[in-house]
Amino acid sequence: MTDQTDPWALQIGRLKAVLAKLKWPLFALAMALFIAGMTYSLSQLSFSLNDLQWGPIALLGLILVPITFLYGAANFVLMARGAGASISFASSFKTACIAQFAEFLPLPGGAMVRSGALVAKGSSVLGAASHVTVNAILWVGCAAIAAAVSLGLQSPHGIVIAIGGIVGVVACTLWLSRKAGLRLALAALAMRCVGLIIAGLRLVCAFLAIAVPMTLSQSYPFAFAAILGSASSIAPGGLGIGETIAALIAGLSDVAPTAAFLAVGLNRIVGLFVSGAATGIIILTGNSDAQPSAAQGT
């Protein structure tokens, strides 16, 4: 138990209280930004629902988003092992589904679900929070490196993004190696590389759905934007933030900023619907191992 007289504990407590008061205003602001951005992008591109390419949307929603759940489950099993907890793949899959849907709540829901599940399976509160945070930073770092390579390492912005990504990846890998062993640290890094392929393919489908040609290598700056937005926790799941970053990064590429905002937003909407449906099934069937643990993650 943390000593209440600890100045750091007091500061963290005050920060949590402030965030608790701001979560709904931030949610409303993020939602307004998201809706305004999507509306503006649609108007600028003269795009309507009739112009949507449903083949890529079906591939995104029916194949790639469920694959994301499987990836998240495998990654969570690995994370739990590093945190000294034991969790089955089935339980991890449920946690991955609920955590992805919880990202859209007006609080750091995904982190709460994952941390709570680790605590419920035997990890300490501090250990669970540390592993969730470090793995999130590792994810952003890997995405930054992929984005930098895509944008070009000969450009100043590519170099800056690459340096930031490399520093994050090295620091997190060293931390994981010290806490969980070199083998698990390298496995976590390899999993992030697999995750980047999935994230890139999801963005390729999202761009193709709005009739914008996109290759896997070209998609990584926008995958980085979405991942960075989600990790920021400024808004639920990076709502509106990831799309805005994608629009800004589009200025460094040949993609129109409005198309980038729209594609990242479409990827988010499809993910929300599929993860929401999966979460609803899990809860209604009474098979959610993550439900009680989510509360423990606070």
Description:
The protein has 298 residues and is mostly helical. It is built from eleven helices and no strands. Helix 6 crosses helix 7 (182-209).
Q: What's the helix and strand layout?
A:
Layout: H1 7-45, H2 54-82, H3 89-102, H4 109-120, H5 125-151, H6 156-180, H7 182-209, H8 216-232, H9 241-250, H10 257-284, H11 290-296
- Structural class assignment: mainly alpha
How many β-strands, per DSSP?
A: 0
Rg, alpha carbons: 19 Å
Unreliable sequence segments: 1-6, 290-298
Please give a handful of descriptors for the protein shown.
globular; 298 residues; 79% helix; disordered C terminus; mainly alpha; disordered N terminus
Provide a concise account of the structure shown:
This protein is mainly α and about 300 residues long.
